[in-house]
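quick q for whoever's on today - can somebody do inverse folding on this one?? i tried earlier but teh output was garbage lol. tokens:
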């Protein structure tokens, strides 16, 4: 008796809503035209991503280029990158908080506390006890110990370790060293994030109330550390000063270009051809190659421009990519990897999308909620290092004024949603560039601070409006 021949399996059919049955979308290839039509359909459906910010950035560059001959000069371009880097770095950390639909209003002044401790350690030759006074010093150390204990309680191991490192550095009175001072700043920022995260996730206080209260508190701490009218100068420390003011060598700049463009190509093409081999859906090869080629060309052109001598003085040579560029690139790569390629990142998106569903799926929601504040404050400490380096000093206004507003604005303008569940670290970079261009361009046009604030506020308002409208459009299109 012979087996009855079976007919070949029927191809997957589309459901009424457009989805492909039996998960057929996973093995469905797209042509270039189909991919472009699909992208346009997503735009019409409200999935705008960072497109409005990119188009706005291009428009602003053209406008300021037309209004000021000095805007697109090599010297001003490099200066623009250094000016906006500190707030951009803070915005990268705030993306993690915004993804949960939370807010951290204290990130700016928390960064100021980190900057003040870092500068005090340098100015006082490592003697924080002498710089703070015994009462304030022991309260400071006690706060670090409490933060370490809270981190252990919430099982945020990195937070506990870094808080204890800060305790050790403070207690032993280590000799001034730029690397120790920068490490101390990050450790203090981490401890601050642990306290914030505990109050929000374990006590259950609204993040707006907690961080508003801490915003005021950290302002007082900065004033206590520095004193009214006081200034801690760090411009005489070559390493600290070079973070935002120094430049890579010409050779180092081209090596960075090759590593950045080559690394991007390796990751993108590797993933693309891996999915092709497994028969999974992926973007058409021409589009992927076009992206890789565009990144390579832009990187090469930027490096070529920044490796030229941009000094107005014939006796001084200023050339090379500013150090802030690799700093931002490293943070961008690390943040993107964490959010896109790790279980922790997937849990953040899950909690931001639907916290109750994430809890039912077994995700430790309180721990995730606390951890994002730790990430934000630690990253804010890195931002403090950058902006303090740029001005060469730390004063009682460090991290205050518009620092936080510009950092939150950078994330939102770039495409991160204030409602949670949608955003990328890349959005903070794009939004940071938009705000840096606005501030720099209006400064070249000699506009007063009032005009700068008005324009910046309107740009942020426009970004929030686009976010709200795109979410409404997305909700309508999915009904």
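ok took a stab at it. sequence:
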């Amino acid at each position: 008796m012979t087996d009855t021949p079976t007919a070949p399996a029927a191809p997957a059919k589309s459901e009424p809503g457009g989805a492909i049955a039996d998960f057929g979308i996973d093995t469905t290839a797209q042509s270039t035209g189909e991919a472009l039509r699909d992208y346009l359909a997503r735009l019409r459906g409200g999935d705008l991503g960072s497109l409005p910010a990119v188009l706005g950035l291009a428009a602003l560059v053209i406008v300021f280029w037309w209004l000021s001959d000095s805007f697109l000069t090599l010297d001003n371009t490099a200066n623009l990158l250094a000016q906006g880097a500190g707030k951009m770095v803070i915005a990268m950390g705030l993306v993690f908080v915004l993804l949960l639909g939370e807010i951290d209003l204290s990130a700016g002044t928390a960064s100021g506390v980190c900057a003040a401790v870092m500068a005090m350690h340098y100015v006082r030759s490592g003697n924080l006890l002498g710089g703070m006074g015994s009462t304030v010093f022991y309260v400071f150390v006690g706060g670090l110990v409490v933060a370490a204990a809270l981190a252990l309680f919430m099982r945020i191991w990195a937070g506990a370790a870094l808080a204890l490192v800060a305790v050790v550095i403070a207690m032993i009175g280590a000799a001034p060293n730029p690397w120790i001072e920068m490490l101390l700043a990050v450790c203090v920022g981490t401890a601050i994030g642990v306290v914030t995260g505990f109050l929000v996730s374990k006590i259950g206080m609204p993040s707006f109330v907690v961080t508003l209260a801490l915003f005021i508190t950290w302002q007082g701490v900065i004033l206590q550390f520095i004193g009214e009218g006081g200034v801690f100068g760090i411009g005489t420390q070559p390493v600290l000063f070079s973070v935002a003011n120094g430049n890579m060598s010409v050779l180092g700049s081209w090596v960075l270009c090759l590593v950045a463009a080559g690394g991007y190509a390796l990751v993108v093409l590797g993933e693309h051809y891996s999915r092709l081999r497994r028969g999974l859906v992926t973007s058409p090869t021409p589009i992927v190659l076009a992206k890789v080629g565009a990144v390579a060309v832009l990187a090469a052109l930027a490096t070529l421009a920044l490796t030229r001598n941009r000094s107005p003085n014939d006796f001084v040579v200023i050339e090379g990519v500013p150090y802030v560029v690799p700093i931002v690139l490293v943070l961008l790569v690390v943040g993107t990897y964490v959010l896109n390629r790790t279980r922790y990142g997937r849990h953040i998106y899950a909690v931001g999308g639907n916290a109750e569903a994430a809890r039912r799926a077994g995700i430790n929601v309180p721990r995730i909620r606390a951890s994002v504040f730790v990430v934000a404050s630690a990253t804010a400490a890195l931002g403090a290092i950058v902006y303090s380096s740029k001005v060469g000093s730390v004063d009682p206004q460090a991290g205050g004024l518009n620092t936080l507003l510009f950092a939150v604005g950078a994330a939102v303008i770039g495409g991160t949603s204030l409602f949670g569940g949608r955003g990328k670290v890349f959005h903070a970079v794009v939004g940071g560039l938009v705000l840096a261009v606005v501030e720099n361009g209006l400064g070249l046009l000699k506009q007063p601070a009032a005009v700068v604030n008005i324009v910046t506020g309107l740009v942020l308002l426009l970004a929030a409006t686009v976010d709200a409208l795109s979410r409404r459009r997305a909700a309508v299109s999915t009904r």
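fwiw The beta strands are 232-233, 393-394. also Residues 338 and 345 are 5 Å apart (CA to CA). so keep that in mind when u check it
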